[in-house]
Amino acid sequence: MRKTPFFKHAMKIWIILLILSMMWSCSFFGDRKKGQYIPVEFDMQKEVGPFEGLGANVPLSFYSRRMKVLQTFNELGIKYIRVKREDENWDDILALRASTSRLGIKWIYSLDVIPPDYLDDFGKLVDVNGFAGWWAEEVDELLYQDVPADYIELLDTPDILRGDSLALTSDLFNELIHATRAELDLRDFQDVEIVGPGLSTPKFSGDLETWYMDLDQAAFDILPFWTVHCWEDKLESGRVGPAVTQYFDYLDRIESRKPLFVTSFATSETKFNDIQYPDPDQYDLLGNLNTFETYYYSATFTIPYALRVYSNTMDLLKHKQVVPFLYQLYDAPADVKYKKRSWGLLDLNGGEKPVFSLLSQLMKNVPKRSTIVSTLNPTQDGLNALTFTNSDELLVTVVNESLESKSIQVSMRGIERKLEINKAEFHFAQEIFPTEQGKKDMIQTEELELKLRSDGPNESYVFTLTLEPQSVFIGEFQYR
Fold first, then answer.
1. What is the mean pLDDT of residues 259-271?
2. pTM value?
3. What is the CATH number of the domain that holds 391?
């Protein structure tokens, strides 16, 4: 059959439309493929600063060799511990000191309440010199018992009302620093340093501004570190990063930046993914009721809590010269039995809670004498990421708190040497138990294979992976 001009013309139009359709389709799918990964980008030339290790609050009211303290400190990379001595339980203190001395861990002694002899009827400090002398005598007693102090924190959370007034104001704190330093020097304790002010929050509005602005230059020079708690959870949905960023911006404005001990942090958020977990300040009686040591259960036994603390730790480390102190290293029987509190990373049997399992997997593999590199841009969609590197090794960690899988592309720029994969792992909960069962979520580890791609002209390395819901990725690399 002979094809008419109209037929030929229609065929041409159809072919053109088909080609355009194919071009659009290829472009569409090409763009979708290109944009399907969430970018996680590092510039290895933009270092935050050296990794200073972690600190931990350790209750001295209970010490047990079941806790394997030496191993615990080593796996968490603990460089400082903060203790409060309520009783003269020297056997426990000496046993703990022996473990920490082997690792070169520094001790901070802090105090919850000023002895009443130095307070007025309203709980306010009136005898500054007397309290300064008390601290010097305390340091002397510690040295006599062979547990010398490295640092002292004059009072924990002096900005909290005790009775009808603050035990300390910023002016009194300034005076107390001078008096205590003089008393320590008089007894030849020049090596014992004072840290502070130990405020309950990094917020700086209102009266809290005076704690930094009212110090005279000599008092400012005496303190090697600022100390502060960071529990901005309720304002920032469990996140500590925004509060610390604002805190440092404020200190920079008043030219008062110092290295920082965040002496207390975790998360007080207890509702995750629309599930309400028991508050660690008031646990539930669940699980095995036959034995005292296993029947308690709180948010600290769950993977969502662990992921939040893991992410908050990363956010604190993204700031130069910050040492985050884990709120409580292990549960103590007195806390659990009488106060119904369960903030520890280890339970009463020395068993690992999920937060310990995750943090130890990270910290025990951080390269020695490493520096920290943060992401070029803030992470999104429940993700957080951080890199540690030294001259030989590089470690990348990414956490996914969300209930959805996340496909990410990790890019590491500014690498001038060949980089090879050493090991890559996922850490996740094998099973997340309903709250009514009162069971501890158990962390499982799975190795995975990565394909590392080099982009020579840009001196970068790239790899992609899919992060499972509520999981942590840790990748170890070596320079060649």
1. 94
2. 0.89
3. 2.60.40.1180
